[in-house]
Structure prediction request, 267 residues.
Amino acid sequence: MSVDYKLSGQAAVVTGSTSGIGQAMAAALTREGVSVVLNGFGDAAKIEAERAAMEAAAPEGVRVLYHGADMTRGGEIADMIAFAARELGRLDILVNNAGIQHVAPVDEFPDDKWDAIIGINLSSVFHATKHALPLMKAAGRGRIVNIASAHGLVASPFKSAYVAAKHGVVGFTKSCALETARNGITVNAICPGYVKTPLVEMQIADQAKARGISVDRVVEDVILAAQPNRTFVEYDQLAGMMLYLVSDLGGAVTGAALSIDGGWTAA
Ligand code: NAD
Prediction:
């Protein structure tokens, strides 16, 4: 079934979109006619090739730009939002997606990893939202989608910083939704279960080390054991939820933390 989300001509920023879920979200938006500012780390030539390919595959007139803001730095995030508004002339959609993970027991958790996870996974959502909201309020419409996690709703061992940050994202989402409910703006969190991205591939290796078991056993007994349908969430399924939220169809949904996790958080 094809759905017309009526997004053509809009403009978006997707943080952490040089890989995984963010890249899939950005590509889905461009296919719907939305110009996008990509962001994230990686090899400069690869990022440029991806940017150009996304623009070439999009409907005519769609622009795909790149801004290399480091999500641990509020000033750079402010600059990225200003860049989007200046270059694209508007900002309709903000997808706060950048995130990292580190797996270790609390009493061995490195201080720098704690600070990085809170900075990238939680504080960056505040900084980007803070600078996007005045533009959205002035336009009388806006859509903010925060990529939280099933770990925004429930916990797992060895992921204290990530769980704390993602619970923080869900709380921040609710607060922003209440503040903007009369401004034509919606703010929601998507809470995915496991998606097979580079971040998860790394976690599989880390969990194997932390638990002293094989990579195959981690996938079987740890990763997919949490997900009752025993199936990774697909990029298209996440993009579909995001497109619904940012379209007019999703206009009545705000302050929600939407699970897409094969039943994980139903338990
Ligand atoms: P990924 O590692 O594939 O991509 C992460 C992106 O964030 C990359 O583009 C990376 O360059 C960027 N990034 C990292 N640090 C950055 C920084 N300091 N500044 C700017 N960009 C930075 O990860 P992913 O699995 O696609 O995860 C994306 C989001 O989805 C994260 O917030 C993650 O917590 C969340 N999530 C992922 C899963 C999963 O199973 N993969 C499940 C639930 C939630």
The longest helix spans residues 111-139. The two ends are 31 Å apart (CA to CA).
